[in-house]
Request: fold
Amino acid sequence: MLGKYLISPLIKVLENGWFACAVSIRSGKGQSSTDRVLRFTRLFRDHGSAADYARSEGSQWIGAVSTASRPV
Reply:
């Protein structure tokens, strides 16, 4: 959890042995919940690097959303 958001890296092993990643960013509960999934084109040689990248990008996205939603 990062504030009100749950960040979940999604990792997939490709046929060539490389790893692709995406990140799920969830907020809310029940019928009021939302889930945004960001998919990335960058490939990684290991699971850990792919997961770290997805978490980092998810955290950056939350920062961008939080900054954009603040009143001026």
Summary: The mean pLDDT is 90. Residues 8 and 24 are 5 Å apart (CA to CA). The two ends are 27 Å apart (CA to CA). The first strand starts at residue 5 and ends at 13.
